[in-house]
Structures are given as C-alpha cells and as structure tokens.
Amino acid sequence: MALRLTLKKAAAAALAPALFATAAFFANPVQAEDGPALWKLSDEDSNIYLFGTVHLLKPDTVWRSDKITTAFKGSETVYFEAAVEETPQSEMIAIIQPYALNPAGVTFSNRFSPEDFSKIKELSGGLGIPEAALKQFDSLRPWFIGLNLTVQNYVQNGFDPESGVDKLLFNEAKAASKDVKYLESVETQIKIFGTLSSENENAYFIEMLEQLGESSTLLNNLVTNWASGKPEEVGALMNEAMQATPDLAKVALYDRNENWAEQIDELMKGSGDIFIAVGAGHLAGKNSVQELLEAKGYKVVRQ
Question: I need a labelling partner for 38 at 20 to 30 A (CA). Which of 71, 136, 243, 303 fits?
C-alpha cells in the first residue's frame, strides 16, 4: 500500500494503466462531511498541503471534502510519488523486467529452502492456488508474484486502481493544467522490492501468503479509518502489518519519508501553493513526514 504500483486488474505487465480522459475537476463530486486528514505548513510566501491517499479504492467510497477540494483547486503545483500514470506501458515493462525476472539458472522454487517451499505449497493450497500453478511462477521473482497476488486479491474484493485517489487527482490536475511533479522515479519504487536481499524477499513472500486471506479486511479497515480522518489508527494498522518485515518497512516507508521531508524543506524555500499527495501510510505513525518536518522546525497544522 505504501507504494504507488498500480497493477491494472492485477495484470503482471500493466503497472502503468492508460490514461482516461476527464473534462474537468469533477463538477459535482460526492463530499464527505470531514473526510481524510489534510495538513498544511506555511511561511510568508508558501503553503504546502500534505494529503494521504489510498491507491486502490472501491468505486463508491466517499472521501472528498470541502477542505481537500479547496486546497487542491488553489494549488498551482501538485506532487505525486512517481510518474506511474504518465509512463507508457512499454517503458514500464522495460523498467520492471530486470527486477521482476529471475536470472539464468534461478527459479522461483529453488530460491527457497525445502522447508520454506513446503510451507509455501501448504499456504498456497489453502488459498486455492494449486501446486501445479506454482511451477508457472518459476521465471518470476517472489516479490513480483507477491505484489500481484495481493493486488489481485484486492481487485476480487471490489477495490479498483481506476478509483484510487492518486489516479483521480492526477487526471484532475492535468485537466486543470496544473504543474504536475514527482518526488521520485518509477524505477526508484521498483527497486524498493527489486533490490531486497534474498532473505528479505523470501520472508516478504511467505508473510504475504500468510496474510493474503485477511488482506482485503486490512485494506477495508485502513480505508475506513483513512476516510474518517483517523491517521493514528491508520498508522497503528500499518505498523502492525509491517512488523514481520522490518527491513522492507525501512526502505519502503521510513527512508522515503526522510527523503521527502528533505525535498519539502527545499520547496519551502520557494513560493506558491503546492499540494502533495502520497500514500496515507507516509503521513501516519512513527517517523511520518509531518513528524520529520516538525523536527526541522516547521509547524505542520492539521486542517
């Protein structure tokens, strides 16, 4: 969830779904009474808004609020995590392929010890994935299979990348001719998983299988708390979910938060109104972006 890796209908080679046309900033969006949390830091000539997003949502999720709409409309520049929506599919595949495919002589099955692979077969069988299907994974690395299975589970439970907040805000920003910028590259995001050690990658995959049956429940709980403006609960759920893979939490969440806080510090030296939309997990819990900015002396005010 912390990553903006939108797999359209969980297809392995479709991390960059085609853009769809929008005419304007949706004229009459359904408004939430209060909605998700929004933060602001300001100086004499700058206003930067921090908004946590959810990358996959059920189409009927109500999340917009007047404060979010006003902040977004009033910002000349909008920052997202990475240029997922703007990267052509052929280019996206070229970026992913070196990190998603096993090298010569390595297969999915022989990446694991016999004991761990027996556990994988048992867990997969419980999820309705037959042992024969595991053989079809042999050319792919565990992180890539795990991410796809997770997103596929979300999609099967009604969550849709096309309804994700980032997707909608990106299209609206483009339609309004806003200046769209990014905090990192697509390859930087892919490398978070693609450069994991074998030990950490295998641990992530097994943990993913163990939690897969409950993943949609977790996302439902996260979305409920996010849409209700409860970042503390979002942070607690995120921290609990990532306890089993602390090395992944470091590179996927905490290191990136530090990088983004540094960038925001630089942006504050400029002027104008900026809206920053990143995964809600980055704005919740310990070492959140707001916490790191406050350590730099900024006053980050919830709106």
Answer: 243
Question: Measured on CA atoms in the order 18, 21, 24, 30, is the torsion positive or negative?
Answer: negative
254 DSSP 8-state letter: I
| pTM, entire model | 0.86
Instruction: Locate the domains of the chain by residue range.
Output: 34-101+140-302
Extract the tokens encoding 131.
């042992």
C-beta of residue 32 within 8 angstroms of C-beta of residue 65:
yes
Q: Is 266 exposed, middle or buried (0-12, 13-18, 19+ CB in 10 A)?
A: exposed
Q: Which residues contact 215 (CB under 8 A, 6 or more apart)?
A: 150, 153, 154
**Which amino acid is residue 93, in one-letter code?**
I
Short-list 72, 76, 79, 77, CA closest to 31: 72
User: What tokens appear for 15 in the block?
Assistant: 């991390």
Q: What is the 3-state secondary structure (H, E, C) of 163-216?
A: HCHHHHHHHHHHHCCCEEEECCCHHHHHHHHHCCCHHHHHHHHHHHHHHHHHHH
